[in-house]
Specification:
This protein is globular. The chain is 35% helix and 21% strand.
Length: 335
């Protein structure tokens, strides 16, 4: 067994490295940057209000680091949108953004469309189901971007407790990462295998980077971003920050299997895109699961969204709104 060091491990931080919020405010003002926070949502009424309240109170009012907070909603049928508006967030329905391009249901779709409605030079995305929300989830992500001009994309990582038989175990989350993504990255992109939680839902990036990336509309958005960044800019612009612990709603094994389907589809798409492997068959569009009842197995087919949105820089309406944006971090193409 050999030890592996990389620029990614060298750019691994702890949220406490960025806990001086006044220093971050000074850097933000000195560099003339604006920061937007967005929550992609679908039926998150139980947690969205607290998340907005905590981050708005601490990082907009007490320490004005964030310039806007928005919810990009996929059509919630609960009170998510109503609660978000009550707590002072801008609320957008994903289907109403860039309507002439149609709409898909998926987190990646919400993230892509958020680039059009948000105004910040730095975009922060935080999942809306965090039970132990804290300001660290935000200032920990923007800290590396404010302090290091060459960093363009920052991922959070954390301990992820998992609920087993009604009790909370201190670890065990991140199952798709360890069973699927880390082996795939180890085979093809060993530098990216050193990301502790490549699928984490909390990350931030410079608009000048994000607007150049295609977005998978569904589960594959994070993997697609990382592979595209690796090729377009190199791992030098990637950083990761330890947030210590994140408590959220754990997925069932069936849901994780569907997630794996979408992620693997994006992964194979990227291998073909960059001519790193030939995919000789047309990939299926449906995930197949098995159910067992009355001493018989049945196959259950579920269509998984695997469509891709093009880089936002190719969208006319986006260019009309934002024009030429500041230069992205230097390109260090690897292949």
């Amino acid at each position: 067994m050999t030890q592996e060091r990389s620029v990614i491990l060298d750019q691994t931080y702890h949220f406490r490295d960025f806990s001086d919020r006044r220093k971050l405010m000074d850097l933000k003002q000195k560099k003339g940057l604006t920061i937007s926070l967005a929550f992609p949502t679908l039926n998150e009424e139980a947690t969205i209000g607290k998340e907005i309240l905590v981050l708005k109170t601490e990082l907009m009012e007490r320490f004005p680091l964030v310039d806007e907070i928005a919810v990009i909603d996929s059509g919630s049928t609960d009170r998510t949108q109503e609660i978000a508006m009550q707590f002072g967030a801008k609320v957008f329905s994903s289907a109403d953004i860039l309507r002439r391009y149609g709409t898909f249901r998926g987190k990646g779709e919400n993230l892509w469309k958020s680039l059009y409605v948000l105004s910040g030079d730095i975009i922060v995305w935080i999942d809306a189901d965090i039970a132990n929300i804290s300001p660290r989830f935000l200032y920990g992500l923007i800290g590396p971007l404010l302090m290091h001009d060459h960093i363009g994309y920052v991922k959070a990582f954390y301990e992820r407790p998992i609920r087993l038989e009604g009790e909370l175990s201190p670890s065990g989350g991140g199952r798709v990462t360890e069973i699927l993504i880390r082996p795939l990255f180890s085979l093809i992109y060993p530098e990216l295998a050193l990301l502790i939680q490549p699928l984490s839902g909390e990350y931030a990036g410079r608009r000048s980077v994000l607007e150049q990336l295609p977005f998978s509309v569904g589960y594959g958005v994070e993997v697609g971003h990382l592979i595209d960044i690796f090729h377009m800019f190199g791992p030098e612009i990637l950083a990761q920050v330890d947030m210590e612990m994140r408590i959220h709603r754990n997925q069932t094994i069936q849901a994780l299997s569907r997630m794996g389907f979408g992620i693997l589809s994006t992964f194979l798409n990227r291998l073909a895109k960059y001519k790193e492997a030939n995919v000789l068959v047309n990939l299926g569009a449906e995930h197949i699961a098995l159910t067992y009842a009355e001493a018989a197995h049945d196959g259950v087919r579920t269509e998984i969204q695997t469509q891709e949105r093009p880089p936002m820089r190719t969208i006319t309406e986006y260019l009309e709104r934002f024009g030429t944006h500041p230069k992205a971090p230097s390109v260090h193409a690897k292949r």
